[in-house]
Amino acid sequence: SKRVPPGSLGFPIIGQSLGMLRAMRANTAEKWLEERVQKYGPISKLSLFGKPTVFIYGQAANKFVFTSDGTVLTNQQTQSVKMILGDRCLLELNGEDHKRVRGALVSFLKPDSLKCYVGNMEEEVRIHLETYWKDKQTIKVLPLMKTLTFNIICSLLFGLERGARRDQMVQYFQQMIEGMWSIPINLPFTRFNRSLKASKDVQKMLKQLISEKRYEFENNLASPHQDLITCLLSIRGENNQEIISENEIIHNVMLIMVAGHDTSSILITFIVRLLAKNPNIHAAVLKGKDHSEFHVRHSTFPVSSKIACGSTEQEEIAQNKSPGEFLTWEDLGKMKYTWRVAMETMRMFPPIFGGFRQTVKDIEYGGYLIPKGWQIFWVTAKTHMDSSIFHEPEKFDPARFENLGSLPPYNFVPFGGGARICPGYEFAKIETLVTIHYLVTHFTWKLCCTDDFFSRDPMPAPTQGLPVQIIPRKPL
Ligand code: HEM
Question: Hey, whose CA ends up nearest to atom 9 of ligand 1?
Answer without folding.
Answer: 415
